[in-house]
Structure formats: structure tokens, C-alpha cells
Amino acid sequence: MMKTSNMTNKCYLFGKEIAAEQLDSELVAEIIADAQDHAAAAAKPDVECILDVLQCVSECWEDPDYHLRKKAARILPGMIDFSKEMVNEGFGVISAICRRENLEKRLIGELGHRRILDEWVGRPDLAYDLKAVPRGVLLHLTAGNVFVGAVDSLVSGIITKNANILKMSRVDPVFPLLFLESIKENDPDGIIWPHQAALLWKGGDERIENPLLQAQLTVIFWGGHEALASVKKRLGNATHLIENGPRYSFAVISGTRIKKGLDKQVIRGLALDLCRWDQQACSSPHVVYILDQNEKPAHQFIEQLYDELIELKDELPVGRLSFDEKVEIRKVRELARMAQARNEARLVCPEDFAFSIVYEKDPEFKISCLNRTLFVKRVASVDEMIAKVAPLANYLQTVGLCLEDDILDSCQQELINIGARRITEVGGMSEGHDGAPHEGAFLLRQLVEWVDLEYGRGHISRIERLLGRITDSPYYGSIIAKAGGSGFENFLKLPLLDRDTFYRNSPPESEAILTGPMTDAYIYASGGTTGNPKFTFYSNREYRYVTDVLTDIYRNAGLCETDRVANLFIAGNLWTSFNVAGRALENLGCLHLPVGGASDFENILKYLQTFKVNAVVGLPSIIIKLAEEIQRRGLDIRIEKILYGGEHLRPQTCEFLKAAIGAVSIRSAGYACVDTGPIGWQCDFLEGSAHHVLDQYSYAEIIDSKTLKPVSDDLPGEIVATNLDRTLMPVVRYRTGDLGRWVEVECPCGFRGKTFELLGRCDDLLVIGGINLMPVDVAAGLSDLPVSQSFQLVARTSLGKDLLIIRLEAEAEIPDARVVEALKKGSYKIAESLHEGWMNLEIEWHKPGMIKRNDRTGKIKTVVDERY
Questions:
Q1: 3-state SS assignment for residue 312
Q2: Residues 258-280, mean pLDDT to the nearest whole number
Q3: Largest CB tally within 10 Å, which of 267, 348, 560, 649?
Q4: 609, 633 in Cβ contact below 8 A?
Q5: Contact by Cβ (8 Å): 846, 808
Q6: DSSP for 729-795?
Q7: pLDDT interval class at 341 (50, 70, 90)
Q8: Of the candidates 279, 276, 350, which has an alpha carbon nearest to the alpha carbon of residue 310?
Q9: How far is residue 268 from each of residues 18, 273, 308, 427, measured CA to CA in Å?
Q10: For 87-135, what is each residue's pLDDT tens digit?
Q11: Which residues, listed in sequence order, are joined to residue 41 by a DSSP beta bridge?
Q12: Cα 825 to the chain's mean position, in Å?
């Protein structure tokens, strides 16, 4: 460890200590050459490891007994002219700068993703992946006015995985060294420490600065006009400059707010904005404008501020002032006294140099001499205030506002128009927000370069990209290798993925199908309506994207932001639909009622009436039951738009919904299942069960379920889906168990991809009595009867012949003969089978809601075959 007496003459150079006098042009050349190697090494560690180290550093500086903090507290007050109280507050800022939680906010807020420096982040909607890479070597030229500023700049370089060279200020050549030493203590693996340098030289020394300023690196400059101009003149062609020149800040408070009585927290906040760092920070206010027609509120404000500053005088005392600084303050005070004698100003200050408040009738913006010297000025309007600060447009940093709501928005816009790039509340000027821009730009974004990995929008390119990214899965890695690799020519060689195989290789039984750990993800229940639920995983990124896709599906199906939509999907039990529908509706911007299909019908009806709901999304069985209840009670509830999902909706049921609740638009909420995600969508021109393939998200096949080969163009077959986005738990050539057929359509919506018609479940196809019976055949006959559209078909064998039992729900039974005649009229197949005696038919009656449903999903299993 360095001795205190020698610290002002030391430098840290990529893991070594050197004396400041050793720094010469020859050594600088070596530093520049070595820096590129350190940049390559600094880019390797995972961001998580970097954050772990900095969190430990944060905890150290938060501890008043930390030995380096105690050393800094002993040295700094006598070196940098801040009071010991201000120095101690600075240690809290250092701890906050390094805190993991705050750094994660910065990475997400400024770069868009916490791990974008470590991995490709997909932007499938734009057909490319994005990654940030470090710029390499950063040279930090920092001002010496606030000692935490150098650390803030340095940490920004560290978390963006750059190598850093920090020029220490001659005012404070100590704290950067102590900070780097604290990193070294908490970085036993050397992932950060060896790639940092803190050097000391006299500003303007061209022997040292010119080689650095002309090297292939990035300069982050913090300082004044003259120094910035000097740096710009000497920059090399390969040198990138990020400039943070001098900036000025001010506050605006309305007289009306003062007359009503400013909250003490507002006054204290402004006093702290003035006192922190003795007004040396760019965010410190130079002027407070009082917006009013007369002077009284300004004087009232001054008196309140004076009292607060008197309290802070001992709590956070001003630092040691130099002779020149005292001269400047005396000059301001004397000029104010003379103006006061002319009734043009007012001076309010204690006898010492703790602070000075000067009220001037001249509203021109005035730059303070700092050290807690504040000008207060009155303006009659926002326009007048804007006119006075407009000349400083290129130098504005922070504006603190305390205004009425009726002028707040317009004032903010006027300030933005003249160049203000940070607007906050009065009292928040000295407190920045992690992840927010600084002076109109995100600093971290300037410390990286962006690389995009583009891929074609066609299915061949997307499939090849998918297969290449999922080989870390033991299951997929094996079958892709056996097929010959990730080229599209091998895609159809991959085995079809049935449910048993999918779940046998999935948690909790196995993790073979996963490509990574079960973190940063959602778990949802899957596996259909029978037996114990199985599980499927979506990474958080995949979940956000699929709900964005669902938003587009809802929008294309006719929902818009003016709709009032009740979400009637079932919540809980790891169920997917309620969650994803909720987020899609949120994205849509409509009024969203997260009712839930399992809610009591009394409550559902109450919500529909209270908020005049005009649209619902949910399971057909829930929507049908709701419509029946509305019709039974004779309620004046009209649901114009229905989006359904999770079950098939028959044409006859659609007619019932139109009659019962006034439905005008009945569309699919997207053909999907939890394992595959969305596969198809409906535009305004598709009706019934026709869907366009969602080809930017899924690849669909239709196969013969016996031969497993693609079907002819218009023949029915099983739908097989590949999700083109999911990589945590990939779904490739998955047998959905749904029947469909390709249809030729030139859709007026302009879609030119494939379109299919959804025909039902493969297990809904009941071969009985010499016919291929589908639920739609039965629904056609029931449509004109006073029975529920929720029914169940049961196949049995009786006396050597097929027996079809139809379970119906109704408030009151009707003659079986009437039902049979209606069924024969609705389906020639049923009529023929009964006429020829190929099967027998029985009707079984149940009260509404009493046919057994799946406890978890609320669905009825429409077809039950008990013959085998």
C-alpha cells in the first residue's frame, strides 16, 4: 500500500506503480502500445463478473470504517478544499456509483440490455441481432472541481469493458489512486484492476498529451472552453472525442406556488442543489427565476431559502475558500449593496462566506462566481424567461421547475426548443437518475460501438439461423448433427417432435431440450387438457417478443386503443393466455379489464356493464357461457368484438354469439399453443378458421399423420410448427395435434405468404358408424335448438355396434327426437349413418356448466372415444 506522504507523486499504470516524474514521451509511447493489449483483455470478462467486483467496492466505500475511506477522509479536506462533511457525502456517492443495482439500471437504460456486451440480443422484428463492443482504450481528461466526477467517468469505462487511462487533476492526485486500490483489493482474479491507469501530468504538457491525443483511442473530455479548444486542435484522425464542456443550470419557480406556501422539502432540496459540491457541479443552479407579476413572492422565497441555508451552514459547511474566491464573493456582494442603494437589488447573506443570495431586478441571466452564490430574478412570463436564457442555449445543462400544471408542459417544451437537455423538479437538480441521458446523450452508448448481425427475412435464412443457435441443447445438437448440420437442406431430415418426446426431454424430467440454464425466464404449464400438466419455458426476451407479436395479431384482428376490452382468459396455475393477452392489450393502449374467465359471473357481468365493455378476449367456452347468461337474464350488454383462442369456434356458435350479444366482429386471437407460440393470424378479410401463417415467427407444415409426408395442397393433415424465435427451449417440427389444410387465397390485405384453414383437433376426428364425424357436423344441427353450444361426443360400442352419445347442456330438456331430427338435418353424414343403421345415437342431458371440464383450463374435451 502507498504511504500517504508519497501518494501525490504516484501513478498507477496497468497494474504497476510508477513515480509521476517517470512519465515522459518515451513512456507514453509504451503506454499507448500496451493499452491496446489491455483493451483486448478488458473486453473478455463477463459483465456479471465486473458488476460483482464493483458491488464489493461499493460496499467498502459505504462502510465508514473502511481503511481506504478513512485515509481519504483524512487527506482530502485539506487538499481539495471541500469540507469534511462534503467529502463524507461524496463517499456515499462513490458507493452509489459502484452499486450493482444502479449499474444495471445504467446498462439497461443506456444500452437497452444488461448483457448486450456479452451476447447477441435478437431484434427479430427487424431481422438482425445486435451487440455492443467496447471502443477499446479510453482517455479520461477530467476536471478537478468534484472528486467523484473522475470516478464516475472511470466506472463508465469499466462497465463497458474498455481499458482506461485517467488523467488525474493536480488538485486531487490522491482519490483516483485510492479508488483503484479499492478495486484491486476486491478483484483477486484481476479482471478489472490490471487494465486501468491513473496518470499525473501538468495540463497542456504537449510532450505527454500530444501522443495520447493523436493515438487510436477515445478521449472523454470534462472541462472548460479553453482546455476543450486546445484538445480539439491536437486530435489525430483516428482519435474519437466525447466532449463534456462547461454547462450552466438554473431553476424556475412560480409566484403562485410560493404564495400558496412552498413545501419545506422543495426549499431544502434547492438549498442542497446549491450547497452540494459548493456549486461546482454543472447541475448546480446559478439563477432562480420567480415567475410572477410582482416582486413580493421573490422576497418571500429568499427569506425561506435563507433560513434553510442557515441550517445547512453547519450540517454541510462550505469548504475552504482561496483568497481569489473570497475576492470574487466580496465583489458580488459590494455590487449588490450598491444596486440595493439604488433600489435595484437586494443582498441577503451572513457575515461570513457561507452563502450569498442576490435579488436583482434586471432579469438577464448571470453566471455565478460559485461557492454558494445565487442570483434570484423575477420574470413576468415564461416567454420573458425563455428570452433571457436563450443566449446560453449551447451551454444549458439542468433546469429545475416548480410550476403549476397548466403551464408546466408548455414551459418544458419551450426549454427543450432552446436547448435544455435535462429538466427536473426543483430539489432534484443535483440528483441524477441512473440510466438517464447526460447532456442530451447516453454516455455508455458513446463508449461502445454497435455491431449488427443481419439475416434474411425468408424462412430458409431464419430456419438456418435457428438451427445454428440451438446446438447447445443435447437433444437438438444430436439430431441436427445426425441430419447433416444446420443447413436448410437438412431441416426436413429432422425427426418430427411429438409431445411425449418433447416433454420427456424437458424439465422436470430432463433438461436435454434446453440450450441454457433455467434463469431469466418464464415457466408455463402445458400438455393439453388431460393428465398432469407439463411445462414449457420462455426466456424473458422471448416472452416480451411473443407478446409484441400478439399485439400485432390483436390489432390486425380489429382491436384498437379506443376499445374497452375484458380479458376472460383463465389466470393462475402457470397458465399462459391471461398473462400474454394482458401484456398485448397493454401494448395496444386500450382500456384493459383483467377480469379472468374463472371469476364469478355476477362480477363479470357487473364489470361489463360498469365500464361499457365492447370487446372480449378469451376461451370460446367461457365466452359462450357468458353469452348464454346474458341472454338468459335479458341484460342489455352488447359485445361488438370477440377475439377467441385456445379452442375452436364453430360457425354455428358464431351465429349464436351475434344473436345473443350483438357481436359484429368475431375473430381468432391467433392460432397458437403454449409450446409453439403463435402460428397463424387473421386479417380483416379472413373469416371462420382461416389463418395466414405468421411467417416472421413460425414455420408451418401440414403432413399426413400416417405417412408423415407433406399433404397435397388442399387435403387435410396435421399441422407441424417450428418456432423461429425461441432458443432457450426450442420447438422444431412440433406436431401440434391440430388438423388443417392449405387454402389458396389472394388476400386483399396484401399478405402473400401461405394461408391455412384450421379444421379442429386430430383427436376430434371421430371415425364412427361408417362416417368421419367432426364436432362441426354436430354443431350445425344444434344451432337452431335451445341448447348450449358446449357439448361432448362420446363413442362407445353397444351390442356390437357403434354408439354415439351426445352430451348436451340446457336449462330444460327437449324431446330427444327433436334433437335427432335437427342433427340429421344439419349433417348428411349423421343422417346417412342413422338411416343405414351403422350406429346408434343417444342424448344425455346436463344442466348448464355441468359437463365435466378440465379443472385447470375450464375446457370440455369435445370428443371422448371409449371403444378401445
A1: helix
A2: 95
A3: 649
A4: no
A5: yes
A6: S---SEEEEEEEEEE----TT---S-EEEEEEEGGG-EEETTEEE-HHHHHHHHTTSSS-S-EEEEE
A7: very high
A8: 350
A9: 45, 9, 6, 7
A10: 999 999 999 999 999 999 999 999 999 999 999 888 877 878 899 999 9
A11: none
A12: 56
Query: d(Cα 400, Cα 405) in Å, to the nearest integer?
Result: 15
47 neighbors 232 (Cβ within 8 angstroms): no
Mean pLDDT for the stretch of residues 362-378: 97
φ, ψ for residue 142, nearest 5 deg: -105, 150
Query: Please, which pLDDT band fits residue 775 given cuts at 50, 70 and 90?
Result: confident
Give the separation between CA 796 and CA 799, rounded to whole angstroms.
Answer: 10
Classify 221 as helix, strand or coil: strand
What's the one-letter identity of residue 383?
Answer: D
d(C-alpha 515, C-alpha 470), whole Å: 6
DSSP reduced 3-state for 660: helix
42, 53 contact by CB (below 8 A): no
Q: Are the C-beta atoms of 17 and 9 separated by less than 8 Å?
A: no
**What is the pTM (predicted TM-score) of this model?**
0.77
pLDDT of residue 27: 94
d(CA 33, CA 165): 13
What single string gives the DSSP state of each residue in 247-263? -EEEEEEEHHHHHH---
Mean pLDDT of the chain: 92
Contact between 746 and 721 under an 8 Å Cβ cutoff? The reply is no
Please check whether residue 98 is in contact with residue 61, taking contact to mean a CB–CB distance below 8 angstroms. Answer: yes
Residue 327 has pLDDT above 90, yes or no: yes
Please list, in sequence order, all residues whose beta carbon lies within 8 angstroms of the beta carbon of residue 790, skipping any fewer than 6 positions away: 621, 624, 625, 809, 851, 860
**DSSP conformational letter for 295:** S
Helix axes 540-556, 577-588, angle to 10 degrees: 60
Residues contacting residue 575 through CB under 8 Å, at least 6 positions apart: 524, 525, 569, 856, 857
**pLDDT at residue 531 in the model:** 46
Task: Name every residue whose Cβ is closer than 8 Å to that of residue 68 and which is 6 or more positions away in sequence.
Answer: 60, 61, 178, 181, 182, 185
**Cell numbers that stand for 727 in this block:** 432458443
- Between CA 74 and CA 811 the distance in angstroms is 87
Q: What kind and span of H or E run contains 866?
A: none
Residue with cell 444446420: 486
Contacts of 241 (CB under 8 A, 6+ apart): 218, 219, 221, 231, 232, 235
> HSE on the CB side for 409, CA within 13 Å?
2
CA angle 698-702-708, nearest 5°?
A: 120
With a CB cutoff of 8 Å and minimum separation 6, the contacts of 742 are 702, 711, 713, 714, 754, 755, 756
Take residue 821 and report the three cell numbers written for it: 331430427
Pairing between β-strand 396-402 and β-strand 373-379 as defined by DSSP bridges = unpaired
CA–CA separation, 143 and 140 (whole Å): 10
Is 821 a residue whose pLDDT tops 90?
yes
CB atoms within 10 A of CB 755: 20
Q: Which helix (H) or strand (E) holds 496?
A: none
The answer, yes or no, to whether the previous bond of 507 is cis (omega within 30 of 0) is no
Indicate if the pLDDT at residue 429 is higher than 70: yes
Residue type, 455: Y
> Residues for the chain: how many in total?
868
Other C-beta atoms within 10 Å of 848: how many?
15
Residues 797 and 868: their CA atoms lie apart, in Å, by 9
d(CA 754, CA 756): 7
- Please give the angle made by the CA atoms of 845, 846 and 847, to the nearest 5 degrees: 135
Overall average pLDDT of the 787-798 stretch = 89
Look up residue 834 and give its DSSP letter. Answer: H
| Pairwise CA distance, residues 578 & 776, whole Å | 27
Indicate the SS3 state at residue 598.
coil
List, edge to edge, every strand of the sheet that includes 863-865.
839-846, 801-809, 791-798, 863-865
Question: Which residues are CB-neighbours of 33 under 8 A, at least 6 positions away?
Answer: none
3 state SS for 94-127? HHHHHCHHHHHHHHHHHHCCCCCCCCCEEEHHHC
